Amino acid sequence: MVIDAKMEQALNGQIQAEFESAYLYLSMSAWFEANDLPGCAHWMRKQAGEEQEHAMKLYKYVVSRGGRVTLGAIAAPRCDWKSATEVFEQTLGHEEKVTQLIYALVDAAVEMKDHATREMLGWFVNEQVEEEETATEILTKFRKLGETPISLSMIDQQLAAR
Ligand code: FEO
Predict the structure, then answer these.
(1) HEC string of the chain?
(2) Fold (CATH) for 5-160
(3) Is the pTM value of this prediction over 0.85?
């Protein structure tokens, strides 16, 4: 069954949101590079890569349902933060927003009785639990340890292992 035009449009919106996430995390990665935290930069670069994979997962799904992918404009992301802690605060807040976007898509799929799309989105629902959990764990570390040279170096080494 060819995808409904309204759902096609909504999924195109999510493809754009995932690329926007990738762009934001790449910008955060660049900030970490500039602030001598290569482990954090590596972590964010990986995160940016994952967001592109999310976008492509949706892209392939739209195509597989006979839909048309149309890419929207991506605005320049924020490029400066006052601390590493603030970067991860924004990361968590951003993921919480993405979770809401995914939930809205699930609601729409249920309402439209589009069970294939609802099923596909189940992967994203689970992924968001993981994304929020990981961001929370890292943020908790920064909040607990503070940003001393020693704690920053320790956390940076941990994030380099991703
Ligand atoms: Fe694609 Fe981080 O959600």
Answers:
(1) CCCCHHHHHHHHHHHHHHHHHHHHHHHHHHHHHHCCCHHHHHHHHHHHHHHHHHHHHHHHHHHHCCCCCCCCCCCCCCCCCCCHHHHHHHHHHHHHHHHHHHHHHHHHHHHCCCHHHHHHHHHHHHHHHHHHHHHHHHHHHHHHHCCCHHHHHHHHHHHHCC
(2) Ferritin (1.20.1260)
(3) yes
